[in-house]
Specification:
mainly alpha; about 70% helix; globular
């Protein structure tokens, strides 16, 4: 009944990571794996803060069409959390790339465990998750997103 206290952000990150590892299927599901990996190949490694509307539209389409609703919901909350963490990089030393490196392979587990291509796939997954963090506001906006999260429509209409 007592609230949890964390000694550091690393404890909280460890709990999130363990939760994601314990899911029966990765948050970014095996059904979406090939589509997401194809998108990841299109993301330039030096994207920094430049957001491609074509890539973000494609990613939004995959998320809306492929992920189960509860996966998309949790993903949106995690991406918001990751963006918030990255905004405090000076105090926590975690930017988008660091977060994607630590949590990307847990969000989207490898479909095959071939050592030959494992490194290149993990690199693409990290790039994809970094891109999701960078374009989170764009990714989770629009009618398809609001259909999944109707409570946001009410908040938006008041502002």
């Amino acid at each position: 009944n007592e609230p949890w206290e964390f000694d550091s952000v690393h404890n909280a990150a460890g709990i999130i990571t363990e939760f994601l590892r314990c899911l029966p299927e990765p948050l970014l599901t095996f059904q979406c794996y090939d589509s997401l990996l194809t998108l990841a190949e299109e993301i330039p490694s030096n994207i920094n803060n430049v957001i491609s509307s074509t890539l973000s539209d494609s990613l939004r389409h995959v998320v809306n069409q492929c992920l189960p609703t509860h996966h998309a919901k949790l993903l949106s909350h995690l991406i918001k959390l990751f963006r918030n963490i990255a905004e405090h990089e000076k105090s926590n030393k975690m930017n988008e790339s660091s977060i994607a490196t630590v949590l990307g392979p847990t969000l989207m587990r490898l479909k095959t465990a071939s050592i030959e291509n494992e490194f290149s796939i993990v690199k693409k997954v990290i790039g994809l998750v970094r891109f999701m963090i960078q374009c989170g506001d764009i990714l989770f906006l629009g009618k398809p997103y609001r259909a999944i999260f109707p409570h946001l429509e009410r908040k938006d209409s008041r502002s």
